[in-house]
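Marked as duplicate of an earlier ticket. Keeping the data here for the record.
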Amino acid sequence: MTNRNPGYRGEFLWELEIAAEQCVAMAETIPGKKYDWRPNSKARSFSEVFIHVATGNFTLLDVIGVAAPMNLYAEVPTDAQERFPGLIRRNDELVASIRDKMQSWLC
């Protein structure tokens, strides 16, 4: 993997790609029946962690000008002042609602 985009934005996207590939590799390895597992009642499950990371990445990308996917964020305001809080609210909804491996791949 090589960074083909110059400047700060390119560096950011390159670093994000590395982390995303590692996260996807881990998600693919964990059996679907384990996606609801959590180490204790206060910790996030595997599915919640994966969705949290994915939606966080969508938010960070949106901030630097790469629009969050419309199929997941269609209801988020486009107004600059309302956009970021709207993305966070939507991320919380997705973390709370996606529970299994197949659903998580929609993100």
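See parent ticket for discussion. DSSP finds five helices and no strands in the chain.
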